[in-house]
Amino acid sequence: MFSTYEEALEWIHSRLRLGMKPGLQRMEWMMEKLGHPERRIKSIHIGGTNGKGSTVTFLRSILQEAGYSVGTFTSPYFEKFNERISLNGIPINDEDLVRLANDIYPLAIELEQTELGGPTEFEIITAMAFQYFGHVQPVDLVLFEVGLGGRYDSTNIIYPILSIITSIGLDHTAILGNTYEEIAFEKAGIIKPGVSVITAVKQEEALAVIQDKALSMKSPVYQLGNEFAISDHKSLDLGEFFSLKTVFQNFPDLETGMSGKHQTENASLAVMAAELLNKFYSFLIEVNHIRAGLKKAFWPGRFEILSEDPLVVIDGAHNEEGIAALTAELNNRFEDKSKNIVFAALADKKLDKMIGKLDSAADRITFTEFEFPRAAAAEDLYNLSKNSRRQFHTDWKELLEAELREAGKNSVLVITGSLYFLSEVKPILLNLLKKNK
Hints:
By secondary structure, this protein is an alpha/beta fold. The protein is 42% helix and 19% strand. It is built from 15 helices and 17 strands. It has helices at 5-14, 25-34, 52-65, 94-112, 121-136, 173-176, 180-187, 204-216, 262-280, 287-296, 320-333, 351-361, 378-384, 396-406, 419-436; strands at 43-47, 70-73, 85-87, 90-91, 141-145, 162-165, 197-199, 221-223, 228-235, 240-246, 250-256, 304-308, 311-315, 338-344, 364-367, 390-392, 411-417. The strands form three sheets. Strands 4-3-2-5-1-6-7-8 form an eight-stranded mixed β-sheet, sandwiched between helices. 48% of the residues are buried.
C-alpha cells in the first residue's frame, strides 16, 4: 500500500507498460468488487475527437454558476496529474489521490491473477474517479470525458442522463478505424437507450452513423445546425461573441472567455445540455447562469494568449482538425502579423497532414522534441515540412529563449502540438516572459 503521493503516482504510471486493452470486463470486475460506485453517480458522458475538454469546462462553469457541485473526469492533465479528477474545477488533493490508489491497488493485484489480466493505467484512473464520486465525495453531477473512442472506453460502464458527441476527426485511426464512419461507430458506442444525444458532428457520413445508433436506441438527437444554431459570430480581443437559438429559446449576444471560432460550437453544446437539464431533469439553470458560465470558463492550452507584448499563444492542436482550427484562427485574428510557429508532436499522429497545414500558415516554423515515450524526433518533423523557412532545434528550452529574444511588435509566437509538450512548456515560458519584462 502507498503512504506517499509519489509512491501512488509511480504505481499508476507504471501501468502504462500495459498499453491500451479495449473492453469493459476489467472495469466491470473492479466495480463489482467496489460495490458499484458508478451506479450512485448522476453523470453526463462526453465523447468526440476534439472539443471534449472545452465542452466539459463550459458546462461545468454554467452548472457552478447555478450553484451545483460538479465533478469532472478529464484527460490528459495539463499541469498536475490530480486535475484528471476534479471537484468544481479544483483538482483532488494528494491525500485523496493516495487513498483512492490504495482502494484500487489490491483489486489490480487480484485482477492480474485472473484471465482478464491486470488493469491499464487509464482503467485504474477511471476506477479511482468512480470510487471518488460514488463513495468518497458525492456531487450533484459528474461530467465524464471519454478517453479514447467510446464503445470500449473504460468510462463506458456508466448510464448517463445525457450523452454529448462533440466532433469526429481522423485521429487514433490505428485503433478506431480509417474513415469517418468507422470512427463515428466507435464514438456512438456511448449512446444509451432513451438517453438524449447532443452533437456538433458535421460530416454527413459520420452523422448518419450517430443518427442510426440513436434511432435504434430510441434516443432523441439534438444536432448543431438543426435543433440549435449559432448566428452573429464575431471574434473579440479575448473570447468570442455569438447568438444561439435552441428549440426551447433564444440566447442573443453570448460571450465566451475562450478564444477560437470553434469554441462557439463547444459553448453551444454546453448550453444545449444545460437546457435539457433544466427542462427534463429539474436543474434550476437560469439564462444569467449560462451567460456568466460561458464568460468565466477557462481551459488551459486552448488558444491561450500567454502574453500580449510580445504576443505569445499556446494551443494544444494535436491532430489534423485541431491544426485546421488553429490555422483558421491565426489567419482570422492575426492576419497582419508574421507567424512564427514552434511545433512538437507524438509520432503516432497523421504528421504529414498536420505539418502541411502549419506550413501554409507559418512565416517561419521550427520543429522541436521533448522527453516522452511516443514523442516524434525534431528532425523527422522537419523532414516532413516544405516551408521555405523551416528549421529544427532539439533543445526546446533554448529554442524558446531564442524565440522570445527575437519576438517583435509585428509577430506572433505560436507554440503548438502535443498537450503533453505544452504542459511542460507553459511554466517555463511564463518564467521566461516574467524575466524579460
